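ok trying again, last paste got cut off:
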Amino acid sequence: MKVIVLVGSLRKDSRSLKLAKSLKAFAPKYLDLKIADIALPMYNEDLETDTPPEEWELFRKKIKQADAVLFITPEYNRSVPAVLKNAVDVGSAPDGKNVFENKPAAIISLSPGKMGAFGANHHLRQALVFLNMPTMQQPEAYIGSSEQLFDDDGNITSHGTLLYLMEFLEAFARWIRVHSGFAELL
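nice, full thing came through this time. structure:
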């Protein structure tokens, strides 16, 4: 199962990116996680011509080819970072060509605060409902105190969090099977 991972931070040393890389390392073999670049030109309907920005076209193609989408996001001002919202906007446009349509999705949010980016997680869920993405409801993944989550090499230091994330990925694989063409693998 091909899963595109959208990381809601552009910072090269972000905890969201560290988490995405860690998940790739211990994901079950049947989940092929690929991180997509979301440093896209801002969505502007005026650019939606016969030749929209090449970055948009490449991004849309990656989403179309994926079986599912995993969002990993920090929280900015109790909401989704602008770069992630822009990626959602680029993928859902133009009208009638939403590449996210019917793609199973899951969200992991993390922050240094104790609430684990709860606000960003739920704002993103609102957008995904509109995009008609069946979004995994349980287990939920809000990771608080994220500044303590990784060692200097980017490895997850909490055994409990690691086990939880492994369970999360297994549940997401089941979710993908139910909500895509993989139902026969149940």
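cool. The chain has a mean pLDDT of 92. The longest strand covers residues 2-7.
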